[in-house]
Every structure is written in C-alpha cells, then in structure tokens.
Design a protein that fits this description.
This protein is of the alpha+beta class. 45% of the residues lie in helices and 10% in strands. The chain has 15 helices and 11 strands. It has a 5-stranded antiparallel sheet with strand order 1-2-5-7-6, with helices on both faces. It is elongated. It starts with a helix and ends in an 18-residue tail after the last helix. The protein binds adenosine-5'-diphosphate (ADP) and magnesium ion. It is an enzyme of class 2 (transferase). Interacts with CASP10. Interacts with IRF3; RIOK3 probably mediates the interaction of TBK1 with IRF3. Associated with 40S pre-ribosomal particles. Pfam families: RIO1.
Length: 504
C-alpha cells in the first residue's frame, strides 16, 4: 500500500495539498502494522506470536486492491485539483505555465493483464508481510532457534536499508523511516528500489508522450494501453500522430525503437483495427469463407475476430514480401494492432496514387507495375487483394506500394474471382481515366491476371460474371473435396509470433 503512496510527490508540487493525505494515512497504518509484525516475528515467545504460529494471519489480499483503487481515485482528484490550480495560476495570461508534469495519471487503470510489464505487484512475495521466520545460520549463531543473534543482524541490516532509501530519487517520498525505526529486509528494499526505477522510467516516458496525446484520443482505452505498453517496452520510441482514420482502422505514425535486440525501422505505422464491431459485420463475408480462418472464426468472440483481421493482414503482407511486391514490412502484431514499416519519409506518408499527381510517363509505369503486381499476387502469393484501388496504392520512390491487405483472400475463396473482377474494374477504370492508353479493359485484365480465357465476346458484363460465378462454383466443389485431404490444419503461413491470448 505504501509503495504506491511513496512515489507521489504531493508536497513538492501542490501547495494546497490536503493537510492529511491518503498516502500519509496509509503509511501510518503501515508503520503500525510493520511495527507489530517486526516485534512478533523474531521473538516467538511474545504475546501475539501464537497468532502467527497458528497461521491465523488476517487475509489482506483484497486490501491491496482496495488501497490501489482508493489511491487511483485520490490521484484523479489530485489531477483535478492541479488543473484548477493551473487555470487559476495562468488566468488570462497569454503565456501559460503547464503543470502537466506533476499529474498523477494512472494510464494502467484499465489494464487487462500486464504481460510485458515489469511491475512491482508482480513480485511474488508481498514485501510487507514477514514470511516465515528465516533461519539464516551465520557464524556465531547459537542454534537455539528463536533467538537473538539473528535478530540483531536483521535489525541492523534493516535499519541500514531504511537509511539507504535516502538515495532514492527526490520525488520518492520515503517518509521518516529512521525516526519510526523502520527495518526493511533486503527483499523489501530491493523491491522498493526496483519499483522506484521502473516508476521513474515509466513516468519519464509518459510525460514525453503526453505532448502527443491528441493522437490517442482516437482509440479506446484498451488500445491506448497496448500502445503505451509498446512504448514502455521500447518497441516504439514515440507515437506521433494519426495518419488516417478509416471506417475499419486508425493508422498512427510512430518512431521505432527495438524489439528483442533487433532494431525496428526508424519510422513505423500502427494500424489499429477498430474494435467497434458493427462496422466489421459486413466483412464477415471475406473471412468466414476463407478456409485458412474458417475453423477458428466460428469459435471466437467478436474481439478476437478483429484480431484475426490484423493477423490476416500480417500473413498476407508476409506472402507479398516473399514475392518481392513493394509493401510494408511487418514489425510486430499485438492483438489488434499491427506495427509495420512506414511508407514515406520524415513523417510525411507517401501519397495514395489517386493523389500523387503523376506525369504521364510515371502513370504509365505505375500501370505496368500494378499489372505485374496483380499477377504476382495471384500466381506467386496465391492472393486476390479484394480491395484494390487507387486508395490502397501508395506512390513512393518511383514505385507503387500495395497496402491494406487484411481482406485479401485466396483465389479459391468462394467469391475470390468476383473480388478479383472488382479489383480489375477499379484498376482499368482508374488508369484509363488517367489517360493511360495501354490500360486494358477489365475483361482483358482479368484474363491476363488469372491466365483464364473467359470469352470476352460482346463485352457483356452479365455474361462474363456468370462465367466467373460458374467457375467459382466448380472450384468450390473441388476445393471442398480436396480441403479435408490436403489441409487438415489451416494455417500454413509463417510470420512474426502471435501474442498469446492473455485475456477475454
Ligand atoms: P483502411 O482499411 O482504413 O483503409 P489502410 O491500410 O488502407 O487502412 O490505411 C489507411 C491509410 O493509412 C492509407 O490510405 C495510407 O494513407 C495510410 N497508411 C497505411 N499504412 C501505411 C504505411 N505502411 N505507410 C504509410 N502510410 C500508411
Ligand atoms: Mg485503405
């Protein structure tokens, strides 16, 4: 309890801090408790020792939680007060002074689980509860159990540890430990020290990041927490701002850090798949019929379905990378957040091809590149983009880069060829409109990409479509039969390791 309180620099910041803070109250309680425990533990003959011997130590597990909640509430009130003070202090002045750095915020308040967090709560032993009396036989120890030689060692050592707390950072309020003759065991001292360090690092990082906090308003608290964690784990240096808010995703720019000793690209994006579920309903069609995800889909709750989208994008990008199609490099996948390399430079994202204002020569080049990519995608990656258009191609360093492949499917998907036809229509319409005379008709493009020879004839779309659907049907029957034989297990892709599911 007091660990939590200890790091709160009330006094140094806020002249109007309450006369008696929660932290004070709690540390007083703690002091009393410690006192009692310290007295009972080495000399087992004292009154009260029976209690400990018989194991009837009061259960305090929920007290910690309660205290944390109280503390959090207290911190919030502190922040509110601080805001009022700040306002009063600055008044109408044009130049204002920010109190931001003194805020208490607990960004972890809606933490689900802290897998990658080095947190003091994770220390297995409650540092404040004396465990079984430790028998530490030392030189000169006279064997008669409950006695005094060890006690002196521990008392001295404990006092020394209390004194060493003076070396903690100035904002860590250690209280008058010596005055109350507090004796800290090595274990307690070490946890405190560890906690102070990690708390300091964390608060430093948070304060750095706050300047950009508008970016994070676009996402829900869970997502924000995941993003914080990535910064705290050093995967990201900084999250800068939002590049795009779409219906299904929000994309942030961030500075890369390092991941398991590997450097992360200097500039990355976080593609956050939106967890507002209703918008995803109409996409079921893509994923439900994708045999790679079929079995898993039916068993999952909606939040996990969203993660599947991110996972799909990751797998599809990996396939494209193999075929050397220009596309973002996957850095890491954390639940519904996909981190990948940034296409662009110095915080400026590459323009979508519809905005790129290309000259006619570049436009023609772009067309041939896209044609080639569509073929590669189909033949080498065994994929149909399924949302290919001038909105999902970026122009960067004289090349077309393909993005947004979460909905991409294999051509044998029950609607795969229809999706491909739609892609072809977008592409040929766009390039024809841009005056690329070489741009094929949608039908020729479709046949060229697939290698199929659906008769173009009178260029009747209904007829062409009917052919496609018939093909899909035939294919589906065939695939159904083969699937059970050939793919008893679904996922054959490789990619960065998935996060183990810690929650839900
Ligand atoms: P959505 O499904 O929301 O369309 P996209 O993957 O298309 O998601 O990303 C939305 C926008 O974010 C893109 O149009 C592009 O401008 C930008 N963007 C996405 N990924 C990257 C990237 N790796 N580098 C640069 N910009 C990107
Ligand atoms: Mg897009």
């Amino acid at each position: 309890v007091a660990l939590w309180g200890i790091t709160n620099p009330w006094g140094s910041v806020n002249p109007a801090a309450p006369a008696c803070s929660l932290a004070d109250v709690m540390s007083e309680q703690l002091a009393r408790q410690l006192d009692e425990e310290n007295n009972t533990f080495p000399t087992l003959t004292e009154p009260g020792a029976d209690l400990m011997l018989s194991g009837e130590v009061p259960d305090t597990t929920s007290d910690l939680m309660l205290a944390q909640i109280l503390q959090m509430q207290f911190d919030r009130e502190f922040d509110d007060q601080l805001r009022r003070e700040e306002k009063k202090f600055n008044g109408d002045s044009k130049v204002s002074i920010s109190f931001e750095n003194y805020r208490m915020v607990h960004p972890y308040e809606d933490s689900d689980s802290s897998e990658d967090e080095v947190d003091w709560q994770d220390t297995r032993h409650d540092p404040y509860r004396a465990e079984k009396p430790q028998t530490t036989p030392r030189k000169g120890f006279t064997g008669k159990g409950k006695n005094i030689t060890t006690k002196h060692d521990e008392v001295n050592c404990g006092r020394k540890n209390t004194a060493r707390m003076d070396n903690f950072a100035p904002e860590v309020h250690v209280g008058d430990g010596l005055g109350m003759d507090l004796k800290l065991s090595n274990q307690v001292f070490n946890s405190l020290k560890q906690h102070c360090y990690s708390e300091q690092r964390r608060s430093a990082k948070l304060h750095e990041k706050k300047e950009h906090s508008t970016a994070e308003q676009a996402v829900d608290p869970r997502t924000r927490l995941l993003m914080y964690k990535m910064v705290n784990a050093g995967v990201l240096e900084n999250i800068n701002g939002c590049i795009s808010t779409g219906k299904e995703s929000v994309v942030f720019h961030a500075d890369g850090g390092s991941l398991e000793e590997q450097p992360v690209p200097d500039e990355v994006v976080l593609k956050v798949f939106k967890t507002t579920l209703n918008e995803f309903k109409n996409r079921d069609r893509y994923i439900k019929d994708d045999y790679r995800f079929n079995d898993r889909f039916s068993k999952l709750n909606p939040r996990k379905v969203i993660r599947l989208w991110a996972e799909k994008e990751m797998h599809n990008l990996a396939r494209m990378k193999k075929a050397e199609i220009p596309c973002p490099d996957v850095v890491v996948l954390k639940k519904h957040i996909l981190v990948m390399s940034f296409i662009g430079k110095d915080h400026v994202p590459a323009p979508k091809i519809k905005d790129a204002m290309l000259g006619s020569e570049d436009m023609k080049n772009a067309y041939y590149q896209v044609l080639h990519m569509m073929q590669q995608l189909y033949r080498e990656c065994n994929l149909v983009h399924a949302d290919l258009s001038e909105y999902n191609m970026l122009w960067h360093e004289g090349k077309v880069w393909l993005i947004d492949v979460s909905q991409s499917v294999e051509p044998t998907h029950p609607h795969g060829l229809e999706f491909l036809f739609r892609d072809c229509r977008n592409i040929s319409t766009f390039f024809q409109k841009k005056g690329v005379s070489e741009a094929m008709s949608v039908y020729d493009l479709f046949n060229t990409v697939t290698g199929l020879q659906i008769p173009v004839g009178a260029e009747n779309e209904a007829e062409f479509m009917a052919e496609i659907v018939a093909l899909e049907k035939r294919n589906e029957d065939h695939v159904q039969k083969r699937r059970k034989k050939v793919f008893p297990f679904a996922s054959e892709d490789s990619g960065p390791p998935l996060e183990p599911d810690a929650d839900d």
